[in-house]
Design brief:
Blueprint lengths: L10 H14 L12 H8 L3 H13 L3 E4 L3 E4 L5 H7 L8 H22 L2 H20 L10 H11 L4 H13 L3 H9 L6 H16 L3 H19 L3
Antiparallel strand pairs: 1-2
Length: 235
C-alpha cells in the first residue's frame, strides 16, 4: 500500500475521533447518555465550543444523537463509523473559529467601510438589508443562496472598503459557512429563527457606517458576531 501524507486534524476532529473510539470500546453503550459538554471539556482540556463541534461531527457520522435539552446519546456503537472521522471527507472548518475570524476581519471591513463608502455603496447596503427582511417574511431566507440578503450585506460591506483582498477574504469565510459543520450547528442552534434580529443588527452597523464612525461600525459588527457565537453555543 503506498504511503500517504499525514493530514493535520482540526481540534474538534481529534476530540470526535477519541470519543468515537471510546464508544467503540464500550465506554458508553448504545442508547446511553454521554457526559455533559462542560464535563467533557474539563476532562479533555479543551473549550466547550470544541466539544460542541465534536458532538456535531459525531452526529453527522450517525454515532450519536443530540436531543435538545436532554443531552447526547449513543446512536451506534459500530466501530466502522469511526473510520468516517479519519477519512478524506471534510465537513468544513470549526464554526467557532469561523465566527472568531469573522469578528476580527469583518470588524475591520465595517470600520474601513465607514471611511470609504459612498452614496451608491450605502444604497446597496440598504437594499441588501431590505432584501433580507423581505425574504424573512416570505420564509425564503437561507445563507446557502448566493443571492441571500445576509450574504449580500456582508459582501457589499467588504466591497465598500474598496480593497479587493478584504473582499476575497470575507467571501472565503462565508464559503466555510456553507460547509456541513456550520450548517449542522446552525440548524441545531436554530440560527435561522434569529434572522429578523440579525437584520436589525445589520441596520445598526449601516447606521454607524453612514455616520462615518469607524469605531462604532467595528463595535456594532463585533457585537453582531458575538451574538451569533452565543447562539451557536446555546442549549
Amino acid at each position: 500500500m503506498p504511503l500517504r501524507a499525514i493530514e493535520p486534524q482540526r481540534l474538534y476532529q481529534q476530540v470526535a475521533a477519541q470519543l468515537a473510539e471510546l464508544i467503540r470500546q464500550g465506554e458508553w453503550g448504545l442508547g446511553e447518555r454521554l457526559p455533559p459538554e462542560r464535563d467533557l471539556a474539563g476532562t479533555l482540556g479543551v473549550s466547550r465550543p470544541v466539544v460542541r463541534e465534536a458532538m456535531i461531527a459525531l452526529e453527522l457520522s450517525n454515532i450519536v444523537e443530540i436531543r435538545p435539552g436532554a443531552g447526547t446519546y449513543v446512536a451506534s456503537a459500530n466501530g466502522l463509523h469511526s473510520l468516517w472521522l479519519q477519512s478524506d471527507l471534510d465537513t468544513g472548518p470549526s464554526p467557532f473559529d469561523l465566527i472568531s475570524a469573522r469578528r476580527i476581519i469583518e470588524g475591520e471591513t465595517a470600520a474601513m467601510a465607514a471611511t470609504m463608502a459612498g452614496a451608491a455603496e450605502l444604497a446597496g447596503l440598504e437594499e441588501a438589508i431590505a432584501k433580507m427582511e423581505r425574504d424573512i417574511e416570505a420564509g425564503t431566507q437561507v445563507i446557502s443562496n448566493q443571492e441571500d440578503g445576509d450574504l449580500l450585506f456582508h459582501m457589499r460591506l467588504a466591497a465598500a472598503t474598496r480593497n479587493s483582498v478584504m473582499e476575497s477574504i470575507v467571501q472565503q469565510l462565508w464559503e466555510g459557512m456553507r460547509r456541513p459543520m456550520f450548517a449542522a450547528i446552525s440548524d441545531r442552534a436554530q440560527l435561522p429563527r434569529n434572522a429578523k434580529r440579525a437584520a436589525g443588527e445589520h441596520r445598526v452597523i449601516l447606521e454607524q457606517v453612514r455616520a462615518r464612525d469607524p469605531e462604532g461600525a467595528r463595535r456594532a459588527m463585533q457585537d453582531h458576531l458575538d451574538r451569533v457565537a452565543s447562539l451557536l453555543l446555546s442549549e
